[in-house]
Design brief:
By secondary structure, the protein is α/β, with parallel strands linked by helices. The protein has one domain: 2-Layer Sandwich (Double Stranded RNA Binding Domain). The protein has 3 helices and 6 strands. Strands 1, 2, 3, 4, 5 and 6 form a 6-stranded mixed beta sheet that branches. Helix 2 crosses helix 3. The protein is flat. About 5% of the residues have low confidence.
Length: about 180
């Protein structure tokens, strides 16, 4: 019994030493303390549906879903707090400028095996106290790939949801890490 207790104590100490010295990734904010609240404006849809050279697909409320994905990720991340416009230290302004679906892999019969979907937005993070842009990002992209057939098949709408999640993650990283 005494040997078992000693063994458990040694193993516990080894575990704690390893756990305490391990590296971990942290998403600490690089923003100054005065910039800890944000309001995300409703996005504008600026997709040009009259351009004949582009694939003119519209998923209903895609600009609303883009904003919601960013808001959800801000809440999940926790480095900045959402608030109303009058109390916000920062305002994120955005426009949906493109939705793209490109084939990226074909089978031997020239059928598309895999697509890439991209949601493209223009963004501006505005400092309300200084009344100036903190940064601007034209052509900011959230993307994913999907298979339309086979055992890994999914729908374009499901892929669009994943691209929105990717957009939200990338935007929040851009806000919080400021790079």
């Amino acid at each position: 019994m005494k040997i078992l207790k000693q063994t458990l104590l040694i193993l516990s100490l080894i575990f704690l030493a390893g756990f305490g010295s391990s590296c971990g990734y942290s998403t600490r904010s690089a923003l100054p303390g005065s910039l800890r609240t944000i309001y995300v404006e409703p996005f504008k849809n600026k997709i040009d549906f009259t351009n004949e050279n582009r694939r003119n697909v519209y998923f209903p409320l895609i600009e609303v879903n883009a904003r919601n994905a960013i808001v959800n990720r801000i809440q999940f991340d926790g480095n900045v707090r959402l608030t109303e416009p009058a109390k916000a230290a920062m305002i994120l302004k955005g426009s949906l400028v493109a939705y793209e679906r490109q084939p990226i892999r074909y089978d031997e019969n020239e059928n598309v095996k895999e697509y890439r979907v991209q949601v493209v937005v223009d963004l501006r993070l505005w400092d309300t106290k200084e009344n100036l842009a903190i940064w601007e990002e034209p052509g900011f992209v959230g993307e994913t790939t999907y298979f339309p057939t086979g055992s890994l098949a999914t729908t374009e709408a499901a892929a669009l949801d994943k691209a929105m999640e990717d957009l939200g993650r990338r935007v929040v990283e851009r806000i919080v890490e400021n790079w």
